[in-house]
Automatic annotation (TrEMBL):
The gene is minC. Signal peptide: none annotated. GO terms for biological process: cell morphogenesis; division septum assembly; regulation of cell septum assembly. It comes from Mesorhizobium metallidurans STM 2683. Pfam families: MinC_C. The keyword Cell cycle applies. Residues 141-241 form the Septum formation inhibitor MinC C-terminal domain. This is Probable septum site-determining protein MinC. Gene3D superfamilies: 2.160.20.70, 3.30.70.260. Keywords: Cell cycle, Cell division, Septation. Cell division inhibitor that blocks the formation of polar Z ring septums. Rapidly oscillates between the poles of the cell to destabilize FtsZ filaments that have formed before they mature into polar Z rings. Prevents FtsZ polymerization.
Amino acid sequence: MTFAAPLEAKSIRFRARSFVAFTLTPEAPLSEWLESLDRWIGNSPGYFTGRPVVLDLNTLKPEVSQIETLVVELGHRGIRIYAIELDGGAALGSHLPPALIGAKEATSDGLLAGAKAAAGKPEEAKADEAKETRLGGDTLMVKTPIRSGQSIFHAHGDVIVLGSVASGSEIVASGSIHVYGTLRGRASAGVLGNSAARIFCRRNEAELLSVDGWYCTAEEMEASVRGKAVQAFLDNDTLRIAALG
């Protein structure tokens, strides 16, 4: 009689990891909010592609049927919802994205340090294309022009671009953005809740400027700040674009 040796149980390893997710917070009337979203997508096609998006419904507090419709509407716009925030709301069915539990909003003194390892790899992968160098204070310097289709995401501080930023490209930073050439693409500063962040560029031909989620598209900018050296900053939750010098 032979006896089989007992199989060794394989341990399962669980590890925590922090990711930066974008949050959408719909407001009533929903039809107008969707129209505003459509304008954003029209000016920034592909902005949400491949990005985790959380749907914050604590302001709207819709019924489950309304959530189902909203998730479908966002799906038609190429926005895939990763999770839903809804405190004390109706139970979500298994056909909807899961309710987010225990989430903390990222801040400059919160998740940034923890997100560094997760966010570092994509930036390192783009180093050959954009010749990036880290300076002191978590500042990222990009020594070459940013070409159309390129995306620079820096979750740890400011971004400095020594060249120009082409149309169809984007820079996303938790801190401020400095472009010493022409800015033709999209620039989003203070994306992790830094309302003091600013955007500076030597020549403004941007498709979109955004600080802490407040944005202005090329169509909405005044002619007096187009083609000029400008700075963009928040003033009482209003995005201001002012000429430099």
